[in-house]
Request: fold
Amino acid sequence: MRLYLSSTGLGADPTILRALAPGPRVGIVVDADDEEGFLTRRQARRQEFAALAAAGFTPTDLDLRRHRDGRGDLAGRLAALDVVWLAGGNTFVLARAMRRAGLAAALREPVASGALLYAGYSAGACVAGPDLRGVDLMDDPGGRSAGEPLETLALVDYRVVPHWRSDSRLSASAELMAAHLQSIGLEHRCLSDGQALVVEDGVTSLV
Reply:
């Protein structure tokens, strides 16, 4: 299993992500921007496509809305990719979109086998953990779909705290999240913008 969990964007050295990937085909998920108004889906998609293409990838859109309630062949879409890339936005919005589409189940085998690299930043890194404890100190858990069940991918057994001690507007919230997780004894990893966690065969490295 290989993972690339970044605080923001591709991190300070995109060549690390490219070296981890089994190939150039990347499916981009921008569902974390739904409901929020950070960027429109079109703007977010254009931004992510440009960044990943510049890093040597061949991007395609992976819209989780098209796979809601089992629609479409999500497993088949993932089988045609080398990387799945979950962009930032609101973590709770992303977690709800993942649950509706059944993303966790569809990702389990290809990520575990190493056929697919899981990569993402900010919200996309947070949902890789076992739960979303403390994320409400950084992201608004409300919105139109508040009250729906949440789902994480449980790819790592610690929580990722992005934007920690960074220039981001979320830096103060990241400090609160990290302090809260520390106070209740939950394992977590803090990332400053530009940093990423690389997971290979159960070993986590900070890059």
Summary: The beta strands are 2-6, 25-29, 58-61, 83-86, 117-121, 159-161, 188-190, 196-200, 203-206. The chain has a mean pLDDT of 93. The chain has one domain: 2-206.
